[in-house]
């Protein structure tokens, strides 16, 4: 049985959930509560750093969301594919997947970490740099989406990464002045697998430290 370990609010868990729903894959979702020591111990046993998510099938355990989606696409796909089977043709999707994780998700996470975990005043020092990087990333995505409905031409790996990255980053630093990116995000939100992820996370949105930015659009 295929098992995904994670939490509905976790951005990288959401990324893998979108892929699973898109592929129509049967799986068990093991909801992890990191406030529970037994669940923390479980995550340490299946993921090297104890971080969410992790994917298990039999003796195989995978971490890193992009790797999980690539493996699912090879071994659990039907007519729907999330990557072109030609390694060269799939490079743009892989590139934009990495872009979204590093240039959007991680920049957003720096601001969140500064507010939650760092000393007083850290957010004021960290946020201007991270917001500047987000502006550059938003502009690059807006250019990439010129003439495209999906980031790499067809819905796939990069778009699975895009929803949680843009959902949380947009709650902190909106991208409304980028029209193609804004229209793309609306297409993402309308997609049924993404709707399933939104509904699964809805009870936990209040935990996000910038929840007002989510409430304005989704609550």
UniProtKB/TrEMBL annotation:
Residues 86-207 form the GST C-terminal domain. It comes from Paracoccus versutus (Thiobacillus versutus). Residues 1-80 form the GST N-terminal domain. Signal peptide: none annotated. InterPro entries: Glutathione-S-Trfase_C-like, Glutathione-S-Trfase_C_sf, Glutathione_S-Trfase, Glutathione_S-Trfase_N, GST_C, Thioredoxin-like_sf. Pfam families: GST_C, GST_N_3. It comes from the Bacteria. This is Glutathione S-transferase.
């Amino acid at each position: 049985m295929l098992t995904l370990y994670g939490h509905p609010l976790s951005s990288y868990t959401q990324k893998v959930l979108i892929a699973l729903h898109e592929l129509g894959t049967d799986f068990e979702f093991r909801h992890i509560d990191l406030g529970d020591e037994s669940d923390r111990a479980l995550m340490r046993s299946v993921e090297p750093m104890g971080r969410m998510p992790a994917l298990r099938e039999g003796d195989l355990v995978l971490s890193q969301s992009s790797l999980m989606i690539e493996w699912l696409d090879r071994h659990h796909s039907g007519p729907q594919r999330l990557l072109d089977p030609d390694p060269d043709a799939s490079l743009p999707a892989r590139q934009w997947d990495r872009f979204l994780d590093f240039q959007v998700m991680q920049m957003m996470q720096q601001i969140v970490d500064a507010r939650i975990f760092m000393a007083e005043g850290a957010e004021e020092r960290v946020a201007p740099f991270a917001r500047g990087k987000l502006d550059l990333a938003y502009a690059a995505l807006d250019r990439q989406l010129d003439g495209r409905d999906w980031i790499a031409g067809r819905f796939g790996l990069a778009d699975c990464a895009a929803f949680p990255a843009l959902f949380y980053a947009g709650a902190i630093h909106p991208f409304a002045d980028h029209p193609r990116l804004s229209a793309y995000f609306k297409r993402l939100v309308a997609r049924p697998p993404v709707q399933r992820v939104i509904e699964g996370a809805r009870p936990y949105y209040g935990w996000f430290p910038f929840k007002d930015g989510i409430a304005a659009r989704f609550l």
